[in-house]
Design a protein that fits this description.
50% of the residues are buried. 30% of the residues lie in helices and 14% in strands. The protein is of the alpha/beta class. α1 links the parallel β7 and β8.
């Protein structure tokens, strides 16, 4: 449907009309429901359409964030509450409905604008589309696009697979967070024209876990036709797990959660039993969301400590939304053949090292444990020969920061390279590496850490008073690079082959040249950067079942 109301701040959707506001020179709608509250009997079920409403609904405030444990790295804005009722999205559009630059061949028209749909990161357990870092104002103002940011279920409620506990009376569905994103993309197809966006010209992009959702959904038949280009920043592309492993993790959650005081009392407990009993699957339907969030938080640390290099929570191969492991799909060429940009940051692991996070191995001992886990999960690999070969490619291993560099490459860089090489055989693929950092970040040993590129993509710098990034200068260089990166991302979304501000091409990635666009003080095309390290890893494709 198209916007017929004379008020440019009112848009008609399939569920009802919504009223936005003019903010910083763009039109903004916040907290639009794209799904019914996944609560009560809908907990652990696929999302359902939102209930329709009469009249015009104000869309002036952010919707609820998904339930999550407090996270120092992901601070929710003041006033944003957590709730299971979290299936909300934001739309940002140019101030006027002038002619767009859409090139889509789907249901849209040439008068509609390209759409960019953002999937936030947060290790599948944290984050929100309300984070100031993800404000799409600059992308919309500079690129004449329509920007959409989704919330989706996280943690135990979104990415733990309890389907092994399903019975004829009790159903637990899989990959709920991914199903939410698919529902959000379906909403875009049905409604975005009312906001001036072209449903036939949609770019799906995300970072970290959001990037992992992008690379996973590229292999999902359920996503066919819902987006037309993909952009994955620092995606943990191999962190997708099999159903047997998922069932073990789910059972562990039941133990970690324990029994809340008002969920059964002494029933089911022996007189001599000490400590909390395990939660029953049926109790998962009524267990408070904060209890599940706490259990998921504890499980993330425990699983990553027990099996370094793995995540407790993430997408699962379910034979449905994710038919096979994504890496297998890419190797077989069965993924959606859509244009792709994919890349990583030079110092991905520095943030994890600084925060002493268990999510990535950062010591020689934990790196060795990671290889032991690989040997356990992938017995067909000669890990005894692989480990010394890989470690030998890092000149200073195990000193300095090289253990975290091995971890960085196992978790982010090599999976992106493996995926890019495979995807380049079926669709145009481009790879980047983000190396830029400010003098203060270099001095602190943080460099181009995980997530550092996001501020440059969105053009949002110094969004908190405690940001020390520019204490020693570097602001002008950052803004210049941001303009370049934004131009590349926006050109890609408009179907212009991701050209630079002066029309500079971005060579395609392939097995022969492995051309990579390196962003630092400027941008440079480098063929096969870090070739020795890539060769040492080879085509191992480290993934866990």
């Amino acid at each position: 449907m198209v916007l017929t109301n004379s008020d440019p701040l009112v848009a008609s959707t399939a569920s009802g009309a919504v009223r936005g506001q003019l903010l910083n020179g763009v039109r903004s709608w916040r907290g639009i429901p794209y799904g019914a509250p996944p609560t009560g009997p809908l907990r652990f079920r696929a999302p359902q359409p939102p209930a329709p409403w009469d009249g015009v609904r104000d869309a002036l405030h952010f919707g609820n964030a998904a339930p999550q444990h407090e996270n120092k790295a992901v601070a929710l804005p003041a006033g944003v509450t957590q709730s299971e009722d979290c299936l909300y999205l934001n739309v940002t559009a140019p101030a006027t409905d002038g002619p767009g630059t859409g090139t889509g061949t789907g249901t849209g028209t040439g008068d509609l604008k390209p759409v960019m749909v953002w999937i936030h990161g947060g290790a599948y357990v944290a984050g929100s589309n309300a984070q100031p870092l993800f404000d799409g104002t600059h992308l919309v103002a500079n690129g004449d696009v329509v920007f959409v940011a989704l919330n989706y279920r996280l943690g135990a409620l979104g990415f733990l697979d309890f389907s092994s506990f399903s019975t004829p009376e009790l159903t637990f569905e899989t990959n709920l967070g991914l199903r939410d994103i698919l529902a959000g993309l379906t909403w875009v197809q049905q409604n975005i024209a009312a906001f001036g966006g072209d449903p036939g010209d949609v770019t799906l992009f995300g970072e970290s876990a959001g990037g992992g959702c992008v690379t996973t959904l590229l292999t999902s038949p359920a996503a066919a036709g819902l987006f037309h280009r993909a952009l994955a920043e620092s995606a943990p592309a191999t962190s997708v797990y099999g159903p047997e492993r998922a069932a073990r993790v789910a059972a562990r959650v039941l133990e970690v959660a324990g029994a809340p005081p008002d969920a059964g009392g002494a029933e089911g407990r022996r007189d001599d039993e000490e400590g909390p009993r395990a939660v029953t699957p049926a109790e998962l339907l009524t267990l408070p969301a904060e209890v599940l969030s706490q259990a998921a938080f504890e499980l993330v640390a425990a699983v990553s400590a027990d099996a370094p290099g793995t995540l407790a929570i993430g997408p699962v191969v379910d034979g449905d939304v994710v038919p096979v492991h994504p890496i297998e799909a890419y190797q077989a060429g069965s993924q959606l053949p859509l244009p792709l940009i994919i890349g990583t940051n030079r110092d991905e692991a520095s943030l994890f090292r600084l925060m002493k996070s268990p999510l990535m191995p950062i010591t020689q001992t934990s790196v060795h444990a990671m290889f032991e886990q690989i040997a356990l999960e992938r017995p067909e690999l000669d890990v005894a020969a692989l480990e010394p070969r890989i470690e030998g490619a890092y000149p200073h291993f195990p000193h300095h920061r090289t253990p975290s560099e091995v971890s960085r490459d196992a978790g982010f860089r090599m999976p992106s390279i493996w995926l890019a090489a495979a995807h380049s055989r079926v669709a145009p693929t481009r790879m980047y590496r983000f190396d830029h950092s400010t003098p203060a970040l270099r001095l602190l040993g943080i460099g181009a850490t995980h997530g550092a590129e996001i501020a440059y993509v969105f053009g949002n710098f110094e969004i908190t008073k405690k940001d020390f990034s520019f204490r020693l200068g570097g602001r002008d260089a950052a803004h210049r690079l941001s303009a370049v990166i934004q131009h590349r991302w926006l050109a890609f979304a408009r179907g212009h082959d991701a050209v630079g501000p002066g029309g500079e091409p971005w060579p395609l990635y392939d097995d022969a040249t492995r051309s990579t666009l390196v962003f630092d003080h400027g941008e440079t095309v480098v063929d096969d950067p870090d070739a020795a390290i890539r060769t040492a890893w080879g085509d191992t494709v480290v993934s866990f079942e």
